[in-house]
Amino acid sequence: MLSSSSPPQPLQTGSSSFYTGxxxxxxxLSVILVLGHVLLQIFPSALPYVALIPSRTIPxxxxxxxAGYIEQSLIGVAISTIGLLLxxxxxxxxxxxxxxxxxxxVVNLFTSICVFVTAIALYYITRQxxxxxxxFSGFHGVLSGxxxxxxxxxxxxxxxxxxxxxxxxxxPTLVTLISIATSFFITDSxxxxxxxxxxxxxxxxxxxxxxxxxxTSLKGDPSDDFSFSSFFPEFLRPIxxxxxxxxxxxxxxxxxxxxxxxxxxxxxxxxxxxSDSIEAARRRERGARALEQRLAAEKLxxxxxxxGTSHQSAAENV
Length: 318
Hints:
Blueprint: H1 15-18, H2 24-42, H3 47-50, H4 63-66, H5 74-95, H6 97-126, H7 130-133, H8 140-153, E1 158-161, E2 164-167, H9 171-183, H10 193-209, E3 212-213, E4 218-219, H11 237-252, H12 259-266, H13 276-317
Antiparallel strand pairs: 1-2, 3-4
């Protein structure tokens, strides 16, 4: 469940706080990612049993679960571990540990299912057996899903990407464009691109329609600020809105409905006062307020350390 009792930590802070504040759950999941990579280095023959290989998924159906936690390269496990720890500092305190873990499990499972179906479809279309025997694995599907969560909660927070500062609400779109662009120059892009793209889409589906919000007793986030077209520039949204309505009907089993109708369905036709824009604004304000509280606490802690060092130095001089 969502929780605002403890504040999230910022994604970009000073060096003194960069290595601190990681949650126990994220540390445990990081250990699993590292151990999974070590297992493959010691027993390379275990790869077909833990990675998603479409031709072997039946009867090895557990691969749909295990593949997301197996990194085949050292760079992959490093990026996944660091990303999990940093995103967890911001998302887990707001969502709560139970909901944070649920998000990871759901997004990982349904991303793997989509990758499996896509690989089978591509094989029947192209007749290339590589789609059947490519080992798909990695945590990057969930990492891309975390970007969607940051877009929902802290859309206006600026994140550093190399020398650029970009608002969090544009990060999923930017990562998607960069991944698609680089796929034309990387021969094995099929091993990561579907997982990354489906990770973004599945996380949006979950947060948009199914995540419970106890503060309003609603499921999902029907606000216009979190619609699928919000991932794209404004001039494209009038064109995309009819298409995304079709996606809602095909993939979600529901037509696009008004906010009042959606609230009425979820609360037995008893709509709540207010609007989705107000709810979205409250969510952003809560995230921004918690972020400011964390920054203030870290600043006070840093000042205390500096004063303690100064007193110690003065005592030594005396």
